[in-house]
Fold these 2 entries.
Entry 1:
Amino acid sequence: MSTVISIKNKSEVFVGRVEDGLKRFVNNRRVIVITDANIDRLYHNIVSRYEHIIIGHGEGNKNLLTVQNIYARLIEMGADRSTLLIGIGGGIVTDITGFVASTYMRGLDFGYVSTTLLGQVDASIGGKNGVNIINYKNMVGTFAQPLFVISDVEFLRTLPPRELRAGMGEVVKMSIVGDAELFEFIEQNISHDCYANTDIMQRIVLDSVRLKADIVDRDECEKGIRRVLNLGHTIAHAIEKCTRKLNHGEAVAVGLSKIAHVSHSLGILTEEDMQRIDSILEKIGFVLDIPASIIDVLREVRYDKKKSDNKLRIVLPEKIGSCRIEEMPFDEVERSFSILKE
Ligand SMILES: NC(=O)c1ccc[n+]([C@@H]2O[C@H](COP(=O)([O-])OP(=O)(O)OC[C@H]3O[C@@H](n4cnc5c(N)ncnc54)[C@H](O)[C@@H]3O)[C@@H](O)[C@H]2O)c1
């Protein structure tokens, strides 16, 4: 069974079998696949059907040097405006593919086959792409919708447990932002073997995609409501700058827990909801301590790129299923975040 969700009438997210998705979206066009070495090794049967470019895996490759190497390969291969680029992989591959496709020759059509949980529920959805510059994550990028995203939960069977957990961090974020029923569903169904259960994973992916699609439909370029999806990310990005011990999803999990505590201390989130957030994250297997000096993390929070006029936009959970965005002056942020030092 497959389900198709449309975004901005520009992009179709296909949740179902990868073969059916490829049949639906790839007709007789010239296709060039961009993927990483892990996906090429595990899914060579899919990658080898098309001309392809392999990049290294890991956040260290999400930079302009990789982008430049891909441009050079595309020129060598004679790619032109009629070529369809398909990124097959996790968030790193799809972010890079979206950026390359929307800039090479001022824009080619592109699509994704999303192979990680984090990619299927978040990174591949919504048309944001980008690469890292120096120490700044996703600092350069574009808004450009892929023609299609194919998400087949069978890919998750080969994903290492740590990457599955990382994806669940974003799913929990999505449920706190706007879907209390999804939160309850996770509370009831999470276990170390749930990731191999196609029905559970399809429900989790579909609900997350629907929620994100709805938000992106209302605010494609993140000028308003879409900012709620940054819940937990101010702290997560600061942690990622201070230490490489955590991957993105793990840092988001710590960020979600900490912002829930901040929101509770401000009298917004109830103690019960704060505890439910901590216990769902712990049940998934996250360690919720900040694995770096709090002083360093707070200093990085100050340099968050979502700042304007010396104010920082902070997303605060009000209850499970609802969040608010507050513009806070730095000193107020520092005061509210000082509970993290305790
Ligand atoms: N564009 C957005 O809106 C958005 C949103 C959230 C995150 N992101 C970005 O996404 C990136 C993280 O994405 P990610 O967590 O998917 O990481 P990733 O792309 O690095 O993938 C994680 C690892 O799993 C491997 N892998 C991928 N699919 C696999 C499979 N099916 N089986 C076995 N191994 C597999 C990859 O090779 C990689 O080593 C970050 O750079 C983050 O900034 C972007």
Entry 2:
Amino acid sequence: MSWLIKTLTSTLGRKLIMSLTGLFLIIFLLVHLAGNLQLLKDDGGMAFNIYAKFMTSNPLIKTTSYILYATFIIHILLSALLTINNLRARGAGYKVNRLSEGVTWSSKNMGILGTIIFIFLVAHLKHFWYEMHWGGIPMVTYEDVTVKDLYLVVATAYGELWYVLFYVVGMIALGFHLYHGFQSAFQTLGLNHLKYTPAIKVVGIGFSLIVPALYALIPLLMYLS
Ligand code: HEM
């Protein structure tokens, strides 16, 4: 138990947990995107609604969801602690000890970017996740399956320009957050190597550009359709 307390109370230990939780969230982003892209199918939401039903009723996926919620909470709490500590250190005139090689705009603003993503996440979960689980969503029947019409909730939300713009801003913040976070996670875990670091950098840049762009494209295309 003392190792856990030591890890949680040391800056390096906290960065280590942030890296591991961050990498888990990166995998989640890919899985979530694959599911959400079904919103763009020209089938009136059938594939997406059946997928959403499966994701909320399969016991294995439900268990993984609880791990996901815990991961989000740990990542957010530790990042808030690290940001506060860094601000205090800066205020006291100490040079902040950075583990990353280069200081970029993203690396300096991880706290602000994380806060924008947090606001996005709260609104997002309230609008879709809460509605799916506890809201009064109308049902829809496809041949012999009756499911909640979550597609209708999403399509209605993306019918409003301000909501679409809110998503686009959220995804720009996510892109910058991932740009630093992706490479930083590998560095913190000690996985930097003369041979592999350039490849990790390229994959990180690609991921932080393509994934948020695809997420942003969904509300934009649904608004325009
Ligand atoms: C176009 C962009 C997005 C769309 C259309 C979308 C759609 C949805 C929908 C419909 C749900 C409810 C599904 C359900 O409860 O089964 C959901 C849940 C969720 N979304 Fe998103 N999402 C988007 C982007 C994001 C992003 C960028 C993040 C993370 C930063 C995120 C994090 C989550 C989380 C944590 C849940 C709860 C998952 C669970 O219960 O297992 N979403 N999303």
